[in-house]
Amino acid sequence: MSLIEEIKARAKVDRKTVVLPEAMDCRILKATEILLSEKVVDIVLLGNEEKIRNTAQEAKINLQHAQIVDPVKAEKTEQYATLLAKIDTTITLQEATDLVKNPVYFGMMMVKAGDADGYVSGAMNTTKNILKTAMRIFKKEGTKILSTALLMIVPNHEYGGKDGVYIFSDCALNENPGYLALSEIAVSSAKTYEKFTAKKAKVAMLSYSTFGSAKSPFTEKVIKATERVKKKCPDLIIDGELQLDSAIVPEIAKTKAPNSEVKGEANVLIFPDINAGNIGCKLVERLANAQMFGPICQGLEKPINDLSRGCSVEGIVGTIVMTAVQAQK
Fold first, then answer.
1. In contact, 306 and 118? CB cutoff 8 Å
2. Four-residue CA torsion sign, 112, 114, 119, 125
3. What are the CB-based long-range contacts (under 8 Å, 24+) for 74-77?
4. What is the pTM of this model?
5. Which domains does the chain have, with CATH numbers?
6. 64 falls in which pLDDT band (50, 70, 90)?
7. pLDDT digits (tens, 9 = 90+) for 275-326
8. Which of 99, 123, 193, 276 is an S-S bond match for 201, by CB 3.0 to 4.6 Å?
9. Residue 165 in contact with residue 174, Cβ under 8 Å?
10. How far apart are CA 320 and CA 167, in angstroms?
């Protein structure tokens, strides 16, 4: 059984409701059809019901059992607007009402009010748009930094704990995190890996240098972040700075980093900045034909997750079931 099938099985045990605001995208509708037919999660689609059903019919997608809510006509629009105005005191009730009529906001307010358990968007909206709204509504008290993680599954791959399963972070949100932020991203990402795989995280703090083979402010940031995590979480397996081959290839690690605790078996890869992370995840997705799920948001009080606008139906299905499992207690 694949990891996503295992996550699906976990989602079925305690079925949750996930809201999808981008119901005019056929990929979203196809993912809805698949998950409803398999009875994995309950789904709420947002938008004009007639337009959504016409789009589905043209694409030969069965939405017979789908729940569709139009934010413009919904009974709870006023209730959600009142709640939003309390959360964000910089806006008026009328401004909140106008915002809530947008499916992106309406869906998040459904989750905030407890009328849905999780939220997935990003097939049509930018990550910036989704996460800016999420931070406005769901930032968890005490969270120092919001970050994202991608679940990457590489087929026929001998690395990543010998099953090709990785967490990549942060590839979508933090452009150039300082060492403090990078350390928080590493800790959150390790927890995300263990949440979904039930395996021990082995974290590599990536760089263009391995254990001092080069020295610059870029490598120093990674070294300081690694040291901070080791002090904060002494039981976490983590090393850095490591080049990618030293992080995931045991034979290379024996030569370049013989004393590394990770031993070339990293399954959580922490990139030093968003350039490296975003390029890296898309290279692996396209050249290695990897499955990419997420970005999964880390540091919010509820499961509010993003998609790449280039996402596949398979990626959407996986992200939705991961969101459902996040919502389980």
1. no
2. negative
3. 74/106, 76/110, 76/113, 76/115, 77/101, 77/106
4. 0.88
5. 3-139+301-327 (3.40.50.10950), 147-287 (3.40.50.10750)
6. confident
7. 999 999 999 999 999 999 988 999 899 999 999 888 899 999 999 999 999 9
8. 193
9. no
10. 17
